[in-house]
Amino acid sequence: MIEEEVLSETQEIIEDNMNYTLFSWSKQKGISPIAVKYGEGVYLYDYDDKRYIDFSSGLMNVNIGHGNQRITQAVVQQMQQISYVTPSCVTKVRGDLGKKLAEICPGDLNKAFFTLCGATSIENAIKLARLYTGKHKILSRYQSYHGSSNGAMTASGDPRKLPVDSQQSPNFVHFDLPYLYRWEYGEENLLKEAVASLERMIAYEAPGNIAAILLEGESGSSGCLQYPKGYLKAVRKICDDNGILLIMDEVMSGFGRTGKWFGFENHGIVPDMIAMAKGLTCGYIPFGCLMVSDRIAAKYDDAMLALGLTYSAHPVACAAALETIQVYEDEKLIENAVYMGEYLNGQIELLKKKHKSIGDWRNTGLLGCLEIVKNRETKEPMAPFNAKPAESLVMNKVAAKIKELGMYTFVRWGYVFIAPPLCVTKDQIDEGLAIISEALLIADEHTY
After folding, report:
1. 232 phi/psi in degrees, rounded to 5
2. What does the buried/exposed string (b/e) look like for 100-139 if buried means 16 or more CB atoms within 10 Å of the residue's CB?
3. pTM
4. CA 210 to chain centroid
5. Which of 114, 198, 247, 383 lies deepest, with the highest CB count within 10 Å?
6. Is the pLDDT assigned to residue 102 strictly greater than 70?
7. Domain check: are 164 and 94 in the same one?
8. Strand 245-249 to strand 273-276: parallel, antiparallel, or no bridges (unpaired)?
């Protein structure tokens, strides 16, 4: 008689997930996920009691840290009152949240349309821009990411859209925006060329056809590719001069991640719409919001607003968001993001002296990315944009070592992301950087 293998609790959990669920953006065999039992602050714990420091805040969304029971209590309290009403009904928490968001948003961005996630915020921003302007084209950047639903994915300039290019939505146009590390002609010329290139694109596509320009408040998963100084101000003026709306995607860069409530505030502009999610509830409950200017909203005072979702303004999600915003304020997390971001920048400068594989460091607040290279002079990447498996061997080893040493973070192509929860301390930053430093010894061996 052959005895059946007895699986540990961790193995059984992983096998059930592997056998009965699908994983996003991944091959389905040969992966080794962490079986997370619980989280606390900047740490995750698996079923074998191994601790992982979360250095990318999940997917750059758990800004307040894991396990904050204030959100649990707010959700439970709301569910004890009412868990769901149709969007045509109202609840106190819906109005309270809308009012609070109007307070923290600049300018006349006072109207909230509540969605389910980042992608649905983007989808509704695109739809509303077309409805409001009567125009159809949406301009967005290559090397950007706006979500995985059909319209949001088409708007993205990310190679994850390439397998479904045949299904893409019509009337999206992408433009290139180089970044300073890989620009050879000086920072002043970068701004001039970036603005001139966009102006040419608008002339080619015709301003009378363009409903909106869609940009991230600060670049995230494409590599934290920072805008040339003055670029967003120039884009704002171009939009104003041509009757084009400006939509800022703050799904990743919003809610303190960059040291401001919203990433675009680092650039001194006010958009026409803000798409938000992630840090709005920090992943505790799926939720999103499209913040709209009074000027746009006024058009629908006496006309139907052709937007709708069954779970729009879900009261439980609204309660989670309202309490999350209160946590940001009470725990001074945005101020801490600025302070810890400055400390992190200093520590990375020390790390650069130790590791010749570090080519560049780009960071705003606590939204940062190391670009790993084979050679600092030639800037040859350790893994190129949209790297093939054979080109990713070294970075895969780096990522595996990071996990082995007790860290969860986002490693993509030649990038190692550093975006811990905003409650992180100096000691925790040092702990995380020590792990990354040891893993980068692998990359150093492949430099020349």
Report:
1. -65, -30
2. bbeeebeebbbbbbbbbbbbbbbbbbbebbbbbbebebbb
3. 0.96
4. 25
5. 247
6. yes
7. yes
8. parallel
